Amino acid sequence: MSSSPAIPVPRPRRVALFVTCLVDMFRPSVGFAAVKLLEEAGCSVDVPRLQTCCGQPAYNTGDRATTRAIATQVIDAFEGYDAVVAPSGSCGGMLSHHYPGLFDDDPTMKARAENLAGRSHELISFLADVLGVEKVAAHYSGAVTYHDSCSGLRELGVKEQPRNLLGSVKGLELREMKTPEVCCGFGGTFCVKYPEISNAMVGEKSADIAATGADTLLAGDLGCLMNMAGKLQREGSAIRVRHVAEVLAGMGDLPAIGEPERS
Fold first, then answer.
1. What are the backbone angles phi and psi of residue 250, rounded to the nearest 5°?
2. d(Cα 186, Cα 220) in Å, to the nearest integer?
3. Phi, psi of 177 (to 5 degrees)
4. Which strands form 44-46's sheet, in the order they lie side by side?
């Protein structure tokens, strides 16, 4: 009697986490949250040690030579993975939208950059749109409001994905701002070049946040979060600021951005 052929078990997606500079230096818990979410979704996750900054600061200031050198190292670091995932729309957008154009005069490197671009994703978009994750097993007590960071929204189409996943978090109430899509004024080097304009923009954003009555602000880009957290704290606000991945991963009991670490 012949036995039926075994059904092949699909191997887990081999995913590389692009940690980002700000996560590495200021908020490592976001990286741990990203790994937790990806592993719970069935991925095998690596964090390549060769990775560096994505090159966005140099790119935004017009230093293409430095950006190309950085991009070349990043392309080398992330060769061979099924997907490259970043807990940041701006860094994810850099890899997926801007790398190929850096190598228009080098067909070999351009092809490698395009290959990386096709495998690069923002974290929440990857979970929802690629892996089909519809809910998470997390709890967060309180009302939150969500800021749409510019790069994630406008370059990568991240809008409903975080809101849908937040809807599955037990105890969480989402209260929308009047203008969640308006820039917070960070813009990377923009806030350094134009501090007065940046401060006015984040002031308008902090007022919109406060008007929701939410006790927590969430977003998917740490640069925006640090900018808004700084403004809220300077104004004496008690609103806590967290990366959306931390809440989705059930790590919402950690000190918020700008709060002292617990001993």
1. 75, 25
2. 14
3. -70, 165
4. 44-46, 14-17, 83-86, 120-122
Helix (H) or strand (E) holding 16: strand 14-17
* Residues 60 and 32 sit within 8 Å (Cβ to Cβ): no
Separation CA 93–CA 154 (nearest Å)? 10
Distance CA 41, CA 130 (A): 11
State the number of CA atoms in the 13 A half-sphere of 238 facing the CB.
Answer: 3
> Which amino acid does the sequence have at 68?
R
Spatial separation of the C-alpha atoms in residues 258 and 156, rounded to whole Å: 28
Instruction: Output the pTM of the full model.
Output: 0.93
* Residue labelled with tokens 């975080």: 162
Q: HEC profile for 175-211? A: CCCCCCCCCCCCCCCHHHHCHHHHHHHHHHHHHHHHH
- Rounded Cα distance between 138 and 113, Å, is 36
pLDDT, tens digit, for every residue of 119-159?
999 999 999 999 999 999 999 999 999 999 999 999 999 99
Q: What is the 3-state secondary structure (H, E, C) of 133-188?
A: CCCCCCEEEEEEEECCCHHHHHHCCCCHHHHHHHCCCEEEEECCCCCCCCCCCCCC
